[in-house]
């Protein structure tokens, strides 16, 4: 495999923002209140809650109450967030023949899909639209 320069947090965030901007407009528009955060690794609390042993075992995480379980009476103390974990995503990228943007798009769509309660088929359709 050829050596690639691994993006730092700021570079990775720029790639994530460009990738998000390239997702279908109707999909992006639905996410107006969801924040996207880039961190190197998931917290140990997140890994424990999901019963994941390795910090490399989680590429992204939706944090919040998905729309299918929200009530108009609910007041969320924290903003809805999608975490992208840079080091696990980069480790995956180094061992797969995929563009970094495609991997990030997959993780974003999957995590945003959790927010909206989308099915796997819905998420696959959105990924196809984003790739096309």
UniProtKB/TrEMBL annotation:
Keyword Protease belongs to the record: yes
Domain of life: Bacteria
InterPro entries reported for this sequence: Zincin_1 (IPR010428), Zincin_1_sf (IPR038555)
GO molecular function, one term: peptidase activity
Keywords, alphabetical: Hydrolase, Protease
Pfam families linked to this entry: Zincin_1
GO biological process terms on file: proteolysis
SUPFAM superfamilies listed in its UniProt record: Metalloproteases ('zincins'), catalytic domain
Name the UniProt record assigns to this protein: Zn-dependent protease
Annotated organism of origin: Methyloceanibacter methanicus
